[in-house]
Amino acid sequence: MIRQMSQENRLITHVRSSAHHPRKPLGIKRSVACQRCHSQKVKCTGGKPCSRCLVAGCEKECRYIKRDRKVRVDESYLEQLIQDSQELHRNQRESVSNITFGAESGGVPTSTRNPISENDSSTRNPLLKDWAWFQTQNKSALPIYVSEVACTAFATRLCQCLNSKDASTSDMSRMRYVKESALGVLSYGEIEWPSLARARLLVNTALGHANPPFHLALRKTSVDYLQTIYQNASFDDPVLVCKYFALFALGEVCSVPSGRLNNDTSPGTTYYARAINLIFVLPERPNMAHIEALLILALCSQFLNRWHSAYVLVGIALRLGLSAGFHHNIPETQYPDPIARENRIRVWWTIYIFDRFWGLKLGLPMQVNDDDIHVDFPSNLAVETFHDEFADSSYQVAVIELARISTHIMRNIYSRQKSAETLLQREQKLLNEMKQWMQSVPDHIRLQPDTHNPRCTVLIHLQFNYCLILAIRPLLLGILDHIATTDFSPETTLSPALAALTEACIHSARHTLILCADEWTKGSISVFGYAFAQYIFTSSLVLVISNLLPYGNADDLVSIDTAAEMLRSFAADGNLMAGDLYEHIQKVQKCQRSGRFSSRLPSTLGNTMIQVQEPCEDDAPSVPHPTATTYVPPTNSQIYPTSVAQLPISDPQYKTAEMSLYQPTMEDFLTQSVTDIGLLDPEEISTNLPDSWPSIPLWTNDF
């Protein structure tokens, strides 16, 4: 027995040494004669041609037979070669099965039907490459990171796809946002407190605009405390000045109906400049007013198109909240006031929502893990003054759950982490989460088809559609480029899984534009708001793709023109974000008319493009604005031209957001076994695109 074990050990050692040590070279092969010299049985000088063939003028007949010597090799060496070959073939299958997004066409996937090996435990994200995308603005500034989830980056990819892979896209690197130099000039000026009556109006407007999904501060307490400030002339407390000036800024930007203020600045900019100048004195022991001020300023930053500032401010608020233990429940014995405890809880969850939603928009990671949060959800207290301070908690709870889904979209679709699941499996998991969210929403938060829906309810469902679109739209771009490069006839059908995803994405885009157009005609959209402009732009990009698909709906052209008109009106009234997005939709429409899909468009395609004034290069205290008259919202007949098919606003299937998840094909996809969901079909998705997308010029770099 001992002798047998010794022999086995020697064999294992021999196998390992043979597998890991290079073999000795076999030496130089002996020269052989060419076929002509060999047949004549004469000595060959070698070379090609040899001297005898050269003299005879038979250079072309001078050929040599390839000979392979028989050599002795160890069996362990052959076994190692077989094992290495099998591993190489397995890696090649996994590499081919990954969906790879190219560059110049806008990142279109390649795939195969081969299932993932059972031994594969770490499939890399098929949507991303090995390097990130950076855009150089100028030599003096840091390169700007551009995430694949950004809507303007997706617009760039779409234009590359419409223009064909070889077309170049002009750089539109100028951005509209309030610069630091302008804020600096305003902050050093004399900024007086408004009258008490106006201060109350502005605070009520700010808190009313944010509630119920976002809780920024106690409503009644914040308004009532103004009386104390004005009576005692407490205008020098930096924390109070910061909080209330932030509220004044938010209230002013939400209350101005249109146009600019008398000094030609964006509404709320003066108050914002004063507040932002005070916030960077970070306290070692923060109080609630300081964290609330950070939260309000973060929200104000978005109205000024300062998204990076908003992300940084909410990050500071989150860190201060963590240092104060906001992510834990505080004992009632240490914090006996139930109103104060509920305020603490709701402020924390508002920070959480901003972190998740804005991280998804910018393509940036979440700043706190869900496993580290141990605080209760917002609740409705049985306290007499509860309704004076808080809104119904069910709205914020619904938004919190949707914010968690946003994190899953970022992690599963746009993250560089490796996953053991295929892309379609991750899509199924996400859509099932969204369906569960829709089923758990209370009835008063659901959209009612035949009655008026509150603005906050509409916004929640618009965010739901936005998340669904971001989760699916890369697949639509892949299908579009595949149609352009292959013979894809209208009779060609997609696989059930891909058809279900495509249908859900297009449905959500159509539903989004219907909701936005309805809110716009009712005048319930803030002129300087950021949310509606984002939703309009995101859905219009999907409908551009939908219109070009063989089974697309030509009525989507009307929706695209409607979206462009709404963005144009917002931009003309001074909405900075809408001005950027309108230029993008102009560029997309231009590529749509002049690119490789132009022959598929009707000759009567609308042209709603107008020029929106570019922001000035020099740093001035005022924000440039086009010299245009106030835009009057048109009637329904003007939004939906009678000469073209109208938006399907009366179609029952577009009345609610959840209908996209209850179509028969989607039901089959969501209930399909995980093991039955394979990979994308190369006959449906393009497979031959170059990998140079990160080098594409990005027009505006901040989204």
TrEMBL record:
One of its GO terms (cellular component) is nucleus. It comes from the Eukaryota. It comes from Aspergillus flavus. Keywords: DNA-binding, Metal-binding, Nucleus, Transcription, Transcription regulation. Residues 1-23, 99-123 are annotated as: Disordered. Residues 33-64 form the Zn(2)-C6 fungal-type domain. One of its GO terms (molecular function) is DNA-binding transcription factor activity, RNA polymerase II-specific. One of its GO terms (biological process) is DNA-templated transcription. InterPro entries: Stress_Response_Reg, XnlR_reg_dom, Zn2-C6_fun-type_DNA-bd_sf, Zn2Cys6_DnaBD. Its main location: nucleus. The keyword Glycoprotein does not apply. This is Fungal-specific transcription factor domain-containing protein. The keyword Nucleus applies. It is found in: Nucleus. Residues 1-10, 108-123 have a biased composition (Polar residues).
